[in-house]
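Weekly puzzle thread! Below is a chain. First person to post its structure in token form gets bragging rights.
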Amino acid sequence: MLLKSDASFNFAMARWDALAASRPLLHGILAHGALDVDAARDRYVQLMESEGPVLACLLNITTSMMAINLPVANPLAYFKELIWDGTMAQDRFYGYADPALYDQVKRAQTQGTFAREPGFAIFHKGATDSFKQIQFGEANVQLTFHADDKKLIDGVECIKMEPDIDYYEDLAAHALLEVIHNGIGGCLTDPKQVYVFRIAGRRAGFPEFDPPYVIV
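Winning reply:
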């Protein structure tokens, strides 16, 4: 799949009300923590209208997370709420999740779905552990745990999470071709490229990658 140089995002399928019908789990997480229903909708609409790459990243990652089969449920099912501040970027977001997710990912590691990421502290300041999905050649989900940062949500002492998607599975390729390249160029992982990798990397037995937006 090749993208035009002027390719843009079409978020018609990701409108707030449409998302409530098509992605109720994600919609609930996006709404959680807001003062009221109107405030939740307004902050989401502002993100859509002013930060297209950031929203595309969020939809790429959450769609990919929902397609991962942990021993129990999928990674997104353990999330309670997102952190709506300047850390929400076009290559990652932060949120709080039930700490049971940690045990689920470690169990998934023994089943060959995830692998512990060596040297994670170099790329993820303050992280306590990190695991990368190893089911695709490119654009695997990485779940980084910041277990020292906790927040009580709905009676559960949740831990801070940092999900992202790297272009490359191999650590050396990730460091040389993505981290260093992006650092020199002053850029971040491009959600359009992640979209292309995920579409191109379809594999038998895995759900189709279907984020609620398209690139036109």
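Puzzle host: Confirmed. Bonus trivia for everyone else. Residues 171-185 have pLDDT under 50 and may be disordered.
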